[in-house]
Amino acid sequence: AATEAAAATDTAASAPGRTGTAPAPGADGWDHRSMKDFTEQRDPDLFAKTRSFAGYLRSREKDRLYWYGMPLHSRCGSRAVIFDELEGRKREFLMFASNNYLGLANHPSVIEAVVDATRTYGATHTGSRFIGGTNMLHKELERRLAAFKQRPACIVYPGGYSANLGAISALVKSYDTLVVDRLNHMSIVDGARLSGAVRKIYRHNDMADLERILSRSAAEGTGGRLIVADGVFSMHGDVCDLPEIVRLAKEYDARVMIDDAHATGVLGVRGSGTAEHFGLKGEVDLELGTMSKTLAGMGGFVVGEEEVVEYLRYYSNSYVFAANIPAGVAAGLIASIDVIESEPERLKRLWTNIGTLRDRLLDAGFDLEHSESAILPIVIGDERRAMELGRAVRSRGLFCQTVVYPGVPLGDARLRVSVTCEHTPQDLELAAEIFVDAARETGVLPGTP
């Protein structure tokens, strides 16, 4: 998932006067390139940049540095069988790349609900919400999500990405101002672009910078203002400073929207999200979430006041003109909420696991930035060094994702480690040993493996 910071730094990759020139391989070619170099490449042939990128990608694959999109051959629990395309065979990995934070994707009652509803309603209704795509399960899901988030109303979208696109572009127009965190998810960036609004970017979690922007915007007397931030930042694991955001929004007459994609089911006593975590339920105008992570399904949602949600139903193009999620998925999501509410020990176990692995990694000397969630970033900086560490970790049987541009800004590469409640104490100890061993082998940590 790309960030606001990565998007804001996009520039043409070609040198002045050179168009469509593929970089040469070798120490001065591929080794000093990143994915950013292929975002723009002026050439009469639109596909010229694709050929340049193909050469870069093949070089990375040859060095066993890229392994994105490898297919699973099993359920995704604390372990998973994955076809290792670099090895040409199936392997069982210790899984630390899953957003299945509470293990609900494998819960028997969730799976049973999906199967039963699919048998009753079929694979899909093949329509949008307004044209034959709604049944009572969708209505019930919206009711349950609103109750879980303790908000009056809810609208369900086909995806979390489309929820951000739809909500932002429907509510914010060219005469309004969007005030966004530098490390927001790319779906927020694209929603801002689609809206045509003035976009002001404040430094990551820097509330003084946010106030400076709000103060100037208020003095200019422009249209409305919407502050948008991730609840949990997806590549960094830290949490937005919601109390200060809410305070500043009140002072400068702005609205607040929080993307709880990685906070729903994780933060708060009940797992309701960022607002509950800070004791600010009802103080956030719009809470957005995805249903493909903790909730173990697919789709996105927005909760808020009745009138706002009703407006979104008619003015969010990504809701009006897109097919709805299948009934089977809706049933599984309802079952997931049931499990979250009836089995609170899953959330407690998740946080025990987070603390255990975080402490082990910090004690070993890794830089985890300011993570306060189930996402533990092992920050490296240099892209190639991060990929080499990822390769060493994978070779030892642990699967986590190496994140480079555009998932993070250039020079901020990292390994993204996702903890779930399904990890056992033995899993966590083995993972820590693998990370330390691999880091010593690659020179990220001092010592010998």
TrEMBL record:
Residues 93-433 form the Aminotransferase class I/classII large domain. Pfam families: Aminotran_1_2. Keywords: Aminotransferase, Transferase. Transmembrane segments: none annotated. Its cofactor is pyridoxal 5'-phosphate. Its EC number is 2.3.1.47. Residues 1-15 have a biased composition (Low complexity). The keyword Cell division does not apply. Residues 1-34 are annotated as: Disordered. InterPro entries: Aminotransferase_I/II_large (IPR004839), AON_synthase_class-II (IPR050087), PyrdxlP-dep_Trfase (IPR015424), PyrdxlP-dep_Trfase_major (IPR015421), PyrdxlP-dep_Trfase_small (IPR015422). It catalyses: 6-carboxyhexanoyl-[ACP] + L-alanine + H(+) = (8S)-8-amino-7-oxononanoate + holo-[ACP] + CO2. Gene3D superfamilies: Aspartate Aminotransferase, domain 1, Type I PLP-dependent aspartate aminotransferase-like (Major domain). This is 8-amino-7-oxononanoate synthase. It comes from Streptomyces rubrogriseus.
